[in-house]
Amino acid sequence: MGKTEEACFCFFCFHFNYRTRQHVVKFNQQKHKQTVASYSSCFKIPPLTWVFVFILLLFSPVFPAISAKKFRHHHQIFRPRKESNKMKLVEAHLNKINKPFVKSIQSPDGDTIDCVITHHQPAFDHPKLKGKKPLDPPESYEQAENRSENHQLWSLSGESCPEGTIPIRRTTKQDILRANSIRKFGRKIRPIRRDTSSYGHEHAVGYVSGNKYYGAKASINVWAPKVASRYEFSLSQMWLISGSFGNDLNTIEAGWQVSPELYGDSHPRFFTYWTTDAYQTTGCYNLLCSGFIQTNNRITIGAAISPTSLYNGGQFDISLLIWKDPKHGNWWLEFGKGTLVGYWPASLFTHLRDHASMVQFGGEIVNSRASGSHTLTQMGSGHFSGLGFGKASYFRNMQVVDWGNNLIPLSNFKILADHPNCYDIRGGTNRVWGNYIYYGGPGKNPRCP
User: Fold this and answer.
1) Active site residues
2) Of 79, 145, 328, 417, which has the fewest Cβ atoms less than 10 A away?
3) C-alpha distances in angstroms, 421 versus 226, 336, 371, 390, 424?
4) Cβ atoms of residues 121 and 300 within 8 Å
5) Alpha helices in 205-343 (DSSP H)
């Protein structure tokens, strides 16, 4: 190499090393060609020579080392910062919904139950409820004193929450991280319509409509259906509905569900839900947002139910009653025989502030079609309605509450299954069970591909 070429080569190396040290390497071949051409013209060296030199440098051990160091530098700063910000949001949400407690109880299924002072519960974070305290049960109502009717796994520990507190299942970091987003944690995906276009939600339900309803009651047998995907669920519940199936939909819901995403396991759990805008921004499961006011210190909403029904074996059911207090207009929830759990304040709602226009009983699953075909998630017992008692899921003694606060039989009762080859339903009436339904199914099968 001559003196001119050597000088020019050293100048190029100085410029190249200076720019890499300053972390301003630009991977733009055209700009490099222009730069090389300018240098070569100064030293009267053909541009192709400099292109050849640059290619040699590009594939030399020096450049990859600098490049790798640069990218390691960026990863060390950017990714931990992103993860750190996410964890800060998770911690902030946990601090919002996990209230200070006076006692904690370990459940055999791994849950932690916190005993929270009643007026410190999440309900009172709601703008319409701030500064208020729980109401006493309606004057004419007598609660049952039978404490053996709990049927929740955490109560097997033998411990209970003291008077003046309520038991709340503690939400963990893992619970929130399983959700699609922190904003959607504890909320349903928007299942508005009752047909095949309902966002992957499929139903087998019995319903009444056309009158004013002030509550509903039923006994539901509890199963542990298989849920095929973490982002699917299977539930059995009662719905009180008012408004249209548009953005003004109001619902109050209660029953049992298996939801791996929400709870991290496959146990059937007692749950509640409510919304005033078709699941868009209001309402949530259980006590995961403000709204429902719990008054009972023995029942945990969101806790696992035990025992469960066995195929061709013993059947276990729970009784649920939702009714409107004529004096204050609030919707009270009863679990078991005469045990009031709490209430949804009338002020939360628009259409349901007065009455419900439809009542539904039955099952719902989410079909994500993760495998490209229909889900294997089961509804109810996982068996079709035709198998009957001991094998299929049921609702029995279904009733509604009239304007005089009386329980009455169903009138003009109808049934609907979105996909009867996957999950079906049949209804009937007899002297012992009153109005009843059998419902459910296995999901994917030869008739449900």
Assistant:
1) 253, 364
2) 145
3) 18, 33, 19, 21, 7
4) no
5) 260-263
